[in-house]
Amino acid sequence: MTANQVVERIQENLGIPWNEKTYRDTFKVGDPNTEVTGIATTFMATLDLIQRAHAAGMNFVITHEPTFWSDRDTVNELADDSIYKFKVDFCARHSIVVWRFHDHIHAHIPDLIWVGLARALGWQQTAGSRNRFTFPATTLTALAAEIERRMNIRALRVVGDPQAKVSSAAVGMGYSIPRVSPDVDVVIGGEQPEAGGQFDDTEYVLDAAFFGRNKGQIILGHAISEEPGMEDCAHWLRTFVTEVPIQFIRSGEPFWSPKA
Amino acid sequence: MELSRRSFARLAGTAALAGPHLRGQQGPITAQQIIDRIQKSSPGGTEGGDPTTALTGIATTAMATMDVLSRAAKDRANFIVTLEPTFFGRLDTAIAGDPVYAAKQEFIQKNGLVIWRFNEHWRARQPDPLATGLAQTLGWTKYEAGDDPTRYDLPAMTLGALAGDLAKRLHARAGIRVVGDPQTTVRRVGLLPGSSPLAATMKMLPECDVVIAGETREWESVEYAQDTVASGQKKGFVMLGRVLSEEPGMKLCADWLKTLVPEFPVHWMPAGDPYWRPA
Question: Is the ipTM of this complex over 0.90?
Fold first, then answer.
């Protein structure tokens, strides 16, 4: 079975039309006609992830995020970069193929990345807006500690009064954190500009806390928020790709944080 | 980059600009007159308050949070110079019906504060004021390499020790995040305070042992740094957080304003590390 045949199988089983204009969900590395020895699904095709996938006997990496450090995986200005050369050479030597699965895994019904995040948070979706959750009243610090433990996060970041009583959250994934609003206590997400963005949750929550309002922002990290969904991706793939082994391999949280 | 006086007046939404003879004038000096003085020296708009307000003191900050504004009001510094937006977004627009926005505006009006954003023109000054200020606060000025305020040759230390030292000197809580092995020895340091693109990291990291950035994207510079480490290079990459990385540059701004505005006290009021994590 070739990498290209795996992608065709995904397109047939997606349940929605393929957007031929996608620049994200395309091959990034290698020859699509390469015979697949095994499939690794992951959040990001870092060099370390590719090396570990190779060591585990997998030569086809299905990644949610870029391989070459930009959304469009633009490589025409990277030819002289030694890290680019190292990564490309490693892939060529070991017949590695990388394909990105971003837009269409989000568009799949249900969004498998979302399914993974909700599962990792341990929250059951209720009726109404899909990204809203309510829970028994707790403190912001207890909520953050529970999420930190469940999702095994090293570099979690939280804004707001640790003792604020909270009982509702709006959750986003990846490069999006919902806009904090009067009808939600806590916003949770992956990654967001700290200031100067469309809406700056961080400054808003700092100021809301100053006025004694029970608001919080919990920043999981982009990888932490979207990695669980790529495990769901592996489960889903196994339902229609049975010819080759399929394994979810964590690219992992990139960061550690010094003690304060 | 230089804004004309006409375009500035439009940005600030003010009717009249002050005349040139500040020192000889009768009556109080206004915030607008100080902005004029800044523009003459470093050719920004006002974010909140009335620019014709009589000045009592100046505060500089990376982000004019309520905490910063309340400290400024207590110290009778009614003109606040901020690097980042005040009203929760790059456009600093009004948010109809929002209680936090309304309370902040009310505080500004009641205390007669004037807030002025000073970002593009401050960052455009040479030498790079954000890097220079960050190095000063870290005590690294004497280690500057090749007359470049973004490069320093430090005594060798581990990446772990460096990160701990950064946390201590910048009074960080949980905002600092690091890529790389804590045991890696680092000596050549590059600084990228504020928000920076992939190209900046791709230029600097190959020439340094560790790059200390403010804010970059996880799928851009962070992945590049991860790949650099995975390729076998003994390097590190630090993200301080945007505000934490920019705040020392606003201390430098306060020092500079003291030379331009000797009539009033100028205070540096850091917003602090916005982030914590559970104990």
Answer: yes
Residue B267: band (very low, low, confident or very high) from pLDDT cuts 50, 70, 90? very high
What pTM value is reported for the model? 0.93
Question: Which of B34, B194, B188 has the alpha carbon at shortest distance from B116?
Answer: B34
> What pLDDT, in 10s, does the model give residues A145-203?
999 999 999 999 999 999 999 999 999 999 989 999 888 999 999 999 999 999 999 99
**From the list B85, B220, B231, which residue is nearest A196 (CB)?**
B85
Closest to B119 measured CA to CA, from B6, B250, B252: B250
Both tokens of B224, joined, read: 């590049």
Say whether B278 and A86 touch across the interface (CB within 8 A): no
Q: Does A198 touch chain B (CB under 8 A)?
A: yes
Percentage of chain A lying above the pLDDT 90 cut:
94
Cβ separation B219–A69 shorter than 8 A: yes
Cis preceding-peptide flag for B127 (omega within 30 of 0): yes
- What is the C-alpha to C-alpha distance for residues B4 and B1, in angstroms, rounded to an integer? 9
Cβ distance of A222 and B276 shorter than 8 Å: no
Give the C-alpha separation, A53 to B233, whole Å: 20
Is the CB of residue A230 less than 8 Å from the CB of residue A252?
no
b/e code B172-181 from CB counts within 10 Å (16+ = b):
bbbbbbbbbe
Cβ pair A117, A226 in contact under 8 A: yes
Beta strands in A88-145 (DSSP E): 97-100, 132-139
Residues of B in contact with A211 (CB under 8 A): 66, 99-100, 103
Whole-number Å distance between alpha carbons of A101 and A116: 15
Please give the residue of chain A at the shortest CA–CA distance from B172: A260
| pLDDT class of B42 with cuts at 50, 70, 90 | low
Strands (E), chain A: 27-29, 39-44, 60-65, 97-100, 132-139, 157-160, 165-171, 186-189, 216-219, 246-248
pLDDT digits over A83-117, tens only? Answer: 999 999 999 999 999 999 999 999 999 999 999 99
Beta bridge partners of B158: B185
Task: Answer whether A158 sits within 8 Å of B164, measured CB to CB.
Answer: no
Shortest CB distance from A47 goes to which of B66, B172, B227?
B227
Token pair, residue B116, equals: 């002025």
